[in-house]
TrEMBL record:
It catalyses: 2-[(2R,5Z)-2-carboxy-4-methylthiazol-5(2H)-ylidene]ethyl phosphate + 4-amino-2-methyl-5-(diphosphooxymethyl)pyrimidine + 2 H(+) = thiamine phosphate + CO2 + diphosphate; 4-methyl-5-(2-phosphooxyethyl)-thiazole + 4-amino-2-methyl-5-(diphosphooxymethyl)pyrimidine + H(+) = thiamine phosphate + diphosphate; 2-(2-carboxy-4-methylthiazol-5-yl)ethyl phosphate + 4-amino-2-methyl-5-(diphosphooxymethyl)pyrimidine + 2 H(+) = thiamine phosphate + CO2 + diphosphate. Condenses 4-methyl-5-(beta-hydroxyethyl)thiazole monophosphate (THZ-P) and 2-methyl-4-amino-5-hydroxymethyl pyrimidine pyrophosphate (HMP-PP) to form thiamine monophosphate (TMP). Its EC number is 2.5.1.3. SUPFAM superfamilies: Thiamin phosphate synthase. 4-amino-2-methyl-5-(diphosphooxymethyl)pyrimidine binds at Q37, I38, R39, E40, K41, N69, S107, K136. GO terms for molecular function: magnesium ion binding; thiamine-phosphate diphosphorylase activity. Its cofactor is Mg(2+). This is Thiamine-phosphate synthase. It comes from the Bacteria. GO terms for cellular component: cytoplasm. It comes from Cnuella takakiae. PANTHER family: THIAMINE BIOSYNTHETIC BIFUNCTIONAL ENZYME (PTHR20857:SF23), THIAMINE-PHOSPHATE PYROPHOSPHORYLASE (PTHR20857).
Length: 208
């Protein structure tokens, strides 16, 4: 499938420094984020669905697709464009059946995952994490730039890099072979989320 996205915001209200969640996301989109994933680990199912619906309405105004983290049934309920699953979530082949038309993302934590049928079913692969991050600590492999380059040689799937990506390392991550960069804190915790997104976009352009 066509994957034109370059800057992917993964949400975490806890990282928004007490500011309004929807304001932060809207600023991010105005600054150049072109794909958003709702990833709110502390919400129960009902609150997660409610927030996903509100977020999808906001993003519709900008023509930016919403991806739902982990909770596959919520995606059709809130009109999301797709889902993102990791190693410990619903397997991608099952998620594909639940959402035949949507965008399906799958995080790669081990190199062996690259060659399983789940990766083949995904529309993009998350390289998770590129660098160790305080935002998610239960991670396995720190891929580094070498890891991205190695994966790049083995697949033509779009690669989304995540983990401690910021305006300073963004260019190098793209040059190593990533197609798109996903961030939490570099935007959610930035003093000015719109400016942070603009700077990331510029760094990405320099790496292409
Ligand atoms: N998956 C792998 S690393 C990560 C996720 C959700 C968190 C990335 O957060 P940050 O703040 O951009 O390092
Ligand atoms: Mg997950």
């Amino acid at each position: 499938m066509l994957f034109p996205y370059k800057l992917y915001l993964v949400t975490d209200e806890g990282a928004c420094l007490g500011r309004n969640f929807f304001w932060v996301v809207e600023q991010a989109v105005q600054g150049g984020v072109d794909l958003v994933q709702i990833r709110e680990k502390s919400l129960d199912s009902e609150a997660f669905l409610e927030k996903s619906l509100r977020l999808r309405e906001l993003l519709d105004r900008y023509g930016v697709p919403l991806i739902v983290n982990d909770n596959v049934p919520v995606a059709p309920q809130c009109g999301a464009a797709g889902v993102h699953v990791g190693n410990s979530d619903m397997p991608p082949l099952t998620a594909r059946t639940a959402m035949p038309q949507g965008i399906l993302g799958y995080s790669i934590e081990y190199e062996a995952q690259l060659h399983n049928p789940h990766s083949a079913a995904a529309d993009y692969l998350g390289i998770s994490p590129v660098f160790a991050t305080h935002t998610k600590t239960d991670t396995v492999t720190e891929w580094g730039l070498e890891g991205i380059a190695r994966i790049r040689q083995q697949t033509t799937k779009p690669l989304v890099a995540i983990g401690s990506i910021n305006e300073h390392n963004a260019r190098a991550v793209i040059k190593a072979g990533a197609d798109c960069l996903a961030v939490v804190s570099a935007i959610c915790s930035a003093p000015q989320p719109a400016t942070a997104a603009e700077r990331l976009r510029n760094a990405i352009e320099q790496g292409i």
